[in-house]
Write a structure and sequence with these properties.
Number of domains: 2
CATH architecture of the largest domain: 2-Layer Sandwich
Helix content: 40-55%
Number of strands: 7
Distance between the termini: 79 Å
Strand order of the largest sheet: 4-5-3-6-7
Radius of gyration: 27 Å
Strand content: 15-25%
Shape: elongated
CATH superfamily of the largest domain: Ribosomal protein L10, N-terminal RNA-binding domain
Amino acid sequence: MLAYRDSAVLASGFYRIKEGGVNLVVNIDEKKRIVDDLHERFIKSKVVILTDYNGLNVPKINDLRRRLLKVESEFKVAKNSLFKRAAQDTDAALIEDAFKGPTAVALSYDDPVASAKVLSEFAKEHPELEIQAGVLNGKVIGLSEIKALSVLPSREVLLGQLLSVINGVPTSLVTALSDIPRRFVNLLQAVKDQKEQQT
């Protein structure tokens, strides 16, 4: 699990969200720190999903962030100019033209399917959240691909299915191999019976 304290969860990504608005960051050093931090996160993330969060209030944003943290993902809010600078030399640069309006990004460091699931489920509950575009393995994905990603089995489920197949193979192989001598004996018996009938 990502090592973030509850206090970090209660703040938006890089802005402190208060009832009635967003407390903007104006300090140049703080902006540079944010850009550097976001840049590192863009590099490490397996998928970046861009959203428009206009209309979501503070409790809803914090609820979404808690859900994403459970699947090793984050929800970051920043100015578009900071997102664009941070995206340089990362896969996120592929969607920098989409950084418009009230933008937030979901960053997944573990399972892209899990974060897409959380975002899609949350967007169904709260239509104010609009999923716009994303980047997965260096490829731009749209809303339809993100929705398709969200209905795939999670990595844990896929691993479980793979293990059951692997465990099933030796059992099937043993059964098939043990069946060969029985069939051979049956064949020999049939040949013997046929010869006895001919004589």
